[in-house]
Amino acid sequence: MNQLRSNSKPIRSVFFILAVSFSFCAYHGSVSEKDNRKLMQSKDFPVLKNQKQAILILSEDRVLRQILCDSIAKYQIGNCVSRTDINVSEPITNQKTIQVDVEIRNSSSDYFANAGKSLVTLTLGVFLSNSAEFRFRIQTSSRDKEILTAKEIDSFSRIERWGILPFYAGFAATNFGTLLNTYRNPIHLKNYCLKESVSNLRKSLEATREDYCEEYEAYLKDSFLKVEKEIVDVILEEIRNEN
Amino acid sequence: MKIKKICLLILIILTIPTFAETKRDKKKINLLVYGGKYTSTDLLPILLRQKTDYKDSTIGVIGINYPLGYKVRFLDFESEALVGQHFGIMNHWEADGLMIARISNLFGLPMSFAFGEGLSITSQNPILENQKKGFNLKNGLLERQGIESRNVLNYLMVELDYRIWNDPSNPRIFMRIHHRSGVFGFYCPPDPACGSNFISYGFKVSY
Questions:
Q1: What distances in angstroms separate CA A1 from CA A4, A159, B131, B148, B159, one per listed residue?
Q2: Is A3 within the bounds of a domain?
Q3: Which of A37, A71, B74, B92 could form a disulfide with B123 if both were Cys (CB 3.0 to 4.6 A apart)?
Q4: Given an 8 Å threshold on Cβ–Cβ distance, is A24 in contact with B123?
Q5: pTM score, two decimals?
Q6: A166 found inside a domain
Q7: How far is B71 from chain A (nearest CA, A)?
Q8: A163 contacts in B (CB within 8 Å)?
């Protein structure tokens, strides 16, 4: 048994400290969310340049409405108003009505992509992601409710997390994790954030309404920010045309 | 037996104030320290039969645990790094890195169950994880096949923790099975499989 003992203890001790530091740093930075800074940036509200341009946004999706309002404020296009904000006593020179909706298509848990990535990393990597295509429909109309233009803009969102585990464990965790992660499909998130009520069983096994809405907002913002410039251009063009 | 019951009752009374606020602060780093005793019993019999055969070998471990702030359904994920020193029959260092899945607030109590998976490295091949072929004087059995372990093995842990006081530092006591394993022959020759188990008890705080 004594043959198993090694004489080079100090060197090995240093090696262990290095190994621990490395493993901790690797895990510490392993979970990443794409474009986190980008997702946060639309929360900064600058002073509005065009205070008198009122923009009424009509949408069944309150999360989308909020994101669009943030964007309008960010680009200083005008003043985003809701129906209750419209006050006859305050003179508003221009009011533009924009109807915006989003359709989610091909919502997926990316099973084959995640399993493939894990195999490429020799089963060391754990990959969890969900993705979907988002189609934004923007309709603009004047005060007399006549539809002037309608435009569709397509976007795509994928939010991915990854980690490192020992051989085989990474692949097993990818498979098991992808199965558990199906509730993060954007279409499912939208459904339970905006339409369906969340039962107690669903709250304990999946997520609360706040969690659903938070996740849905992350996907929607990710896809929206990819085509934000195009959407803003459509709104700006319509304002210019009417003026 | 009576003392155990009294201790359990005191523990429950002490932890009643913690029931009010049972949410963990998900971004705080946890520091943990634990100690355990070696058992030659396999992991499943320990978990299912609570039958353990202790040996005169102990381990002392300190570690850092970092919550990743990511949740899949009811599972919270954490990463952890550990450094340990063995005492008694074995006398070597051990380092472990692992990822943990945790179910918090079990049964509405300030208690959580965790399962961790990672890698374990030792400064030398652990003596108790190896077994020579031939007649064993200790147990009087003829060992037809020896066990040949390795420095690098899979690390696995099962933990049950309990918050003992409602405080920002979130102090918890826990019981953990510290398990090194060859994963059915992946890290060392299978049948008989190599590995070791330590039944451990410890304490952790957030900061």
A1: 6, 52, 9, 12, 32
A2: no
A3: B92
A4: no
A5: 0.76
A6: yes
A7: 9
A8: 77, 79, 99
